[in-house]
Amino acid sequence: MTHSRSRISKAVIPAAGLGTRFLPATKATPKEMLPVVDKPAIQYVVEEAVAAGLSDVLMVTGRNKRPLEDHFDRNYELEEALTRKGDASRLARVRESSDLATMHYVRQGDPRGLGHAVLCAEPHVSDQPFAVLLGDDLIDPRDPLLARMIEVQERHGGSVVALMKVDPEQIHLYGSAAILPTDEGDVVRVTDLVEKPEASQAPSAYAIIGRYVLDPSVFEVLKKTQPGRGGEIQLTDALRELAQQEALGGPVHGVVFTGRRYDTGDRGDYLRAIVRLACERDDLGPDFRTWLRSYVMEEMQE
Question: What protein family is recorded (predicted)?
Fold first, then answer.
């Protein structure tokens, strides 16, 4: 099979999860709409895709996800109210999300795992390589991971996954990759992948984090992939097939990421992400850091 080398322009963002770890907040509000400081988490992800040159975004949604579509649409009543008040600053921020990218939506229907969500994107993506961004992982814009992954894919073809070294005791929370070095320090060749292994069975401490650049050959593999861990169609299992049978769709490479990543899928990490990002804001940081230092000192004295 000829490796696809077309310029990547499409991003797929699976957003059909129920967000049960954040109940009751997510009973009526999609977890992707939970605010990180003053923007919903999903907006950071779309902004990352756009910054990497991906202006066409497909969101794979499910029931009760209408607020996602509303957020990236125009709100004429709100815009008119802000215009009448002469509030140009807030007006610009409201319009920002609707002007970011060309947004498309498809419903996953039966939630059968990440691999199935990616498969739902086939009619939109067609035969072009594309990126997949998971909404629980926020990558700091100062660390352009996705742009680097796209560069690697365009040079080598095939698919590219993002890898991050984690504590071996945490590897059971991720997909784990067996890797071989290349002549580029941050790029490795992936030879095997295992979804959420026990530490003793993990091929390495390199975990797959929520960024992928995929060759369209992954669709045919996903159609034949049987439900795996958790009874779901796992994207990791399809990528393992591609890594072990290069003729199906090119090699699988990994970009080893050592930058700033915020996990908003875990309640504790979600709170830490808010604190970190608020501290770094020019408008909020100075006062917030002063209060935070005072609060920590008071806690230490008790």
Answer: Belongs to the UDPGP type 2 family.
- Contact 211/153 with Cβ under 8 angstroms? no
With a CB cutoff of 8 Å and minimum separation 6, the contacts of 302 are none
For residue 297, pLDDT over 70 is answered with: yes
What 8-state DSSP symbol labels residue 180? E
Contact predicate 272/245, CB 8 Å: no
Phi, psi dihedrals of residue 264, rounded to the nearest 5°: -95, 5
Residue 206, beta-bridge partner list: 165
39-40 and 261-263 strand pairing: unpaired
Question: In this predicted model, what pLDDT tens digit does every residue of 118-136 receive, in sequence order?
Answer: 999 999 998 999 999 998 8
Label residue 212 by pLDDT band (50, 70, 90): very high
Rounded CA-CA distance 292/115 in Å is: 41
The answer as to CATH 3.30.1360.120 being correct for domain 10-265 is: no
Backbone angles phi, psi at 15, to 5 degrees: -145, 40
* Structure token pair of residue 153: 């894919």
pTM above 0.85, yes or no: yes
**Cβ atoms within 10 Å of 143's Cβ, excluding its own:** 14
Give me the residue spans of the domains in the chain.
Answer: 10-265, 266-302
Distance CA 10, CA 14 (A): 13
